[in-house]
UniProtKB/TrEMBL annotation:
Name of the featured protein: Por secretion system C-terminal sorting domain-containing protein
Pfam family of the protein (one): Por_Secre_tail
NCBIfam families with a match to the protein in the record: Por_Secre_tail (TIGR04183)
Source domain of life: Bacteria
InterPro entries with a match to the protein in the record: Secre_tail
Ranges for domain Secretion system C-terminal sorting: 113-189
Length: 190
């Protein structure tokens, strides 16, 4: 009787257990593909970070016949060929041309202050997305500017060493201004 009921069940319902398992497998497969495609279209801010860490003794840039060559001593020559808005580059050298930032976009990323507490030199490190004027200030607890530096830095990883060995032990505020944005961090001097 039970075998007869199963046969009746399969005849009246076209989706058998095998078909349902196959449908579940295909649904999972297509769902996974849809999620991966959605992630691929998400914008990421890390795509614009330009880190220039090349270990070499020397290098340079030259132009010959309308072609710009970037090279580093000890490595094969690297040619950068540009035509209009297209640029072809190989190797470690990165192009100096970066897309302009949209208005209001933060030009400074990954700001860290180390060592903290510091006794001789404190270092401020960050990534700049475009060339920018950077103002660095060290302010004491009374609000007085103890140290100030204003300079243009190029795009890429920037490290600013600041001597603190002549400062009195205490808590200071590091202020960095870049592209209309202000960043603050507490610094302890020992």
């Amino acid at each position: 009787m039970q075998l007869c009921m199963q046969a009746l069940y399969i005849q009246h319902f076209p989706f058998s257990l095998i078909n349902l398992t196959l449908m579940k497998h295909l649904f999972t497969k297509y769902l996974l593909i849809a999620v991966l495609m959605a992630i691929a279209w998400l914008p990421t801010s890390a795509q614009l970070v330009l880190v220039r860490d090349v270990a070499a003794s020397s290098g340079g840039t030259g132009t010959a016949g309308g072609i710009t060559f970037d090279y580093t001593i000890g490595e094969p020559a690297v040619a950068t060929i540009a035509a209009g808005s297209w640029m072809l580059s190989q190797g470690f050298q990165q192009p100096e041309i970066l897309p302009p930032l949209a208005p209001g976009v933060n030009p400074l990323m990954d700001f860290i202050l180390f060592p903290n507490p510091a006794s001789t030199t404190a270092r401020m490190q960050f990534n700049l997305l475009t060339e920018n004027m950077i103002t660095l200030m060290l302010v004491n607890t009374a609000g007085q500017v103890i140290y100030s530096e204003r300079r243009v830095y190029g795009a890429g990883k920037v490290t600013i060493p600041t001597p603190v060995d002549k400062l009195a032990a205490g808590i200071y505020t590091v202020i960095i201004k870049a592209g209309g944005m202000i960043y603050t961090e507490k610094l302890i001097v020992q």
